[in-house]
Specification:
It is built from ten helices and two strands, in the order ααααααααααββ. The protein has 342 residues and is an all-alpha fold. Helix 4 runs parallel beside helix 8, helix 5 crosses helix 6 and helix 6 crosses helix 7.
Amino acid sequence: MLQSLTSNSCVRLIQSNKSAWYFLFLVLGYVLYLIFGAVVFSSVELPYEDLRRQELRTAKRQFLQENECLSEERLEEFLAKALEASNYGVSILNNASSNWNWDFTSALFFASTVLTTTGYGHTAPLSGGGKAFCIIYSVIGIPFTLLFLTAVVQRIMVFSTRRPVTYVHTHWGLSKPLVAIVHAILLAMVAVTCFFLIPAAIFSALEEDWNFLESFYFCFISLSTIGLGDYVPGEAFNQRFREFYKVGITVYLLLGLIAMLVVLETFCELQQLKQLRKMFYLKKEKPQDRLSILEHDHLSFTTVADHAAANSAAAALRENKTEPYVDVPDLVSPGGDEPMLR
C-alpha cells in the first residue's frame, strides 16, 4: 500500500513538472555532447599536434647547428616577434609583403566579418584608435546588422516559404505539415548546392593550396559565423584581381548568411519543431494584474446580471399588482341602468 502511494505521488510529481524534467535532460544532453566533442577532437588532433611539435623542434635544432654564430635566445626573440606580427596579419615573408591588410577592399572585408560576427581573426586593429573605433563600430553595427538581416529574411520568407506552401496546400489539397516538411528539405538542398557545393568548387579552383574539402570547410565555417580564420581566401601572394576577389567574397558572405537564416527560419516554422521546443519552454502564466482585471470584470458582470434580474422581478411584480386577482361581474340595480357596484 505504501509503495503504491509513493509511486503514485512520484508519477504525479513528474507529470506536474514535465517541462522542468525535459529541461534537465536537455542540459544533461548538451553537457554530454560537449564532452563527446572534446574527447573526439582531442583524440584526433593531439597526435597531429605532437607531430608538428617534433618537426619544429627538429627544424630549430638543425638551424642552430647550421648557424652556430646565432644563439638560441636570439632566435627565440626573433621568432616571438615574427609570430606576434603574424597574429595581427603582418607577415615577414617576401612573397607576402605585397599584400596589404588595410587597403579599402580588405577593410571592407574586415568590416563585414565584424558586423556578421564571423571574425576570422587573421586581421585585427593594430593601433589604439583602431581598437577603440572597432568597439564603437561593433556596438552600433551588430544590432543594426541583426535588424537588417531580420527585415530581409522576413520579406524573403513570404515568397520563398509561406506562399509556396499555401499555394500547394490549397490547390493540390495536400496536408500542410507534409508540404512544409518537403518544402523545407528542398529549400535546404538548394541552399547547400548554391552556397556550399558550387562555391567550394570555385574556391578550390581559385585557391592553389585548397582542395575541395578545405574549400567546403571554409564555406561552412564562414556561413555558420564560426570563423576560425585558419582558411581565408584572397591571401595568396600571387592572387589575381585581389580587390575584386575580396569584394566578391564579401557579397558571398552576406548573401550566404541571409540564405542560411531563411533556411533556419523555414525549419523553425515547422509544427513538429514548434512542438519539440514547447517541451523545454516554460508555460506562459497570466500576469497578476490581468487575473485581477478578469476577476473584477467577472464580479462586475455578475453584479450587473443580478441587478438586471432583480429589476425584472420587480417590474413583473408591479404588473401583477395592477391586474385584478378575481374578475367581479358588474351589479346593476333592478330599476335602472346604473351599476350598483363595479
